[in-house]
Amino acid sequence: MDHYRAVVAGIKDKKLPCFLGGKMMGAWIASLLISGKDSPEEELLNLNGLIALGYPFEGYDEIRTSEHLDDITVPFLFACGENDMFA
Fold it and tell me: Which of 13, 23, 37, 61 could tie 53 with a disulfide, CB 3.0–4.6 Å?
């Protein structure tokens, strides 16, 4: 999560659009940040969307990975292959 915060902090000063994303667990971490569940609101001001290349809907070891998705208010692109056993 700290790495994503550092990326957002570096980009927001440049007035460029910022899309967070990742594959599987990285997409989950990005979605937590962008949902506001684990982020101060000022950190989210310049986030324009979320890109998930695979997403662990089935979860990992009893971790609920999708409860916060309804709190995402920016566009969310989700892409996965049909052989993705977690999606």
Answer: 23
Determine the Cα–Cα distance for residues 50 and 86; give it in Å rounded to an integer: 19
> Do residues 72 and 31 touch, judged by C-beta distance below 8 A?
yes
* The residue type at 48: N
pLDDT of residue 71: 86
Sequence spans of domains, the chain: 2-79
Question: What distance in Å separates the CA atoms of residue 26 and residue 22, rounded to the nearest whole number?
Answer: 4
Rounded CA separation 6/65 (Å) = 23
Q: Quick check: helix, strand or coil at residue 34?
A: helix
